[in-house]
From TrEMBL:
SUPFAM superfamilies: GAF domain-like, Winged helix' DNA-binding domain. Keywords: DNA-binding, Transcription, Transcription regulation. It comes from Bacillus thermotolerans (Quasibacillus thermotolerans). Transmembrane segments: none annotated. GO terms for molecular function: DNA binding; DNA-binding transcription factor activity. Residues 10-72 form the HTH iclR-type domain. GO terms for biological process: negative regulation of DNA-templated transcription. SMART domains: HTH_ICLR. It comes from the Bacteria. This is Transcriptional regulator, IclR family. Residues 73-251 form the IclR-ED domain.
Length: 254
């Protein structure tokens, strides 16, 4: 975590946010010893930084597990920064309902300046590692990424999409484009194990009155439990939830 000193900056503030960045980069909560090992900060100083960050709500400490994760204040700042607070507030009750009804994890993702990010998650299985947490950016090849590719304004996601597609062989790019047309027709995207082995997901769009995308509603679980088509009972339930959410934003199905 050693960086060149800059006399025009407050070094302790830099270190504090480097700790926040370190926690954000992981796909699971960290113990004190994990953070100490990764950061190289002395134990006495790290205690002070973590206590301060926890007090400010920038970091959350699970007292039972003794682990640290991103705090609610960061989530609040993030939602205000991307202007999606209304979306999150509307979708969150549905996430809980979907998670309870399907016994799968449910999340909502919204578009930032350059990629989709997870804004909230409801999980029915605390032991399931879905490979992502609130604030994580999602790749094009994920089910969520495919929904944004199919429905987000082209000029907003052009660079993000182009960068990802350039890494694919021509045959895979062609297959992706053909699949995208199907996603636009069915309002449904499925991807097998995009981030974690044995964990798959499907995603559906959330639209507003002018048919523009406001977010993606995604269901994640063990590959054996996640439906691959929009015709499955679970898929139909989630699509109905998405339709109700979209209607609250003025969308009317054609």
């Amino acid at each position: 975590m050693n960086k060149p000193k800059n006399t025009s900056m407050i070094q302790s503030l830099q270190i504090g946010f480097q700790i926040v960045d370190l926690i954000a980069e992981q796909d699971h909560p960290l113990k004190f010893t994990d953070i100490q090992e990764l950061s190289g900060i002395t134990k006495s100083n790290l205690y002070k930084y973590l206590n301060t960050l926890t007090y400010l709500g920038l970091v959350y400490r699970d007292k039972k597990q003794g682990t640290y994760s991103l705090g609610s204040k960061l989530i609040e700042y993030g939602m205000l920064a991307i202007g999606s607070q209304d979306v999150i507030g509307t979708v969150t009750p549905y996430l809980r309902d979907i998670s309870r009804h399907t016994s799968l994890s449910a999340l909502v993702a919204v578009w930032t300046q350059d990629s989709p990010v997870i804004a909230n998650i409801s999980s029915s299985n605390a032991t399931l590692n879905i490979g992502a947490q609130i604030g994580n950016r999602l790749p094009l090849h994920s089910a969520t990424g495919r929904i944004f590719s199919a429905f987000q304004h082209e000029h907003e996601m052009k660079e993000w999409k182009q960068t990802a597609l350039e890494k694919l062989p021509e045959a895979e790019r062609t297959a992706f484009e053909e699949e995208e047309a199907k996603i636009q027709r069915e309002h449904f995207a499925y991807t097998a194990e995009p981030l974690v082995k044995h964990v798959s997901s499907f995603s559906v769009p959330l639209l507003k009155y002018d048919s523009e995308l406001v977010g993606a509603l995604t269901v994640v679980g063990f590959s054996t439990d996640v439906p691959k088509t929009p015709h499955h009972e679970t898929s139909r339930y989630v699509l109905q939830c998405a339709e109700e959410i979209s209607e609250s934003f003025g969308y009317r199905k054609q």
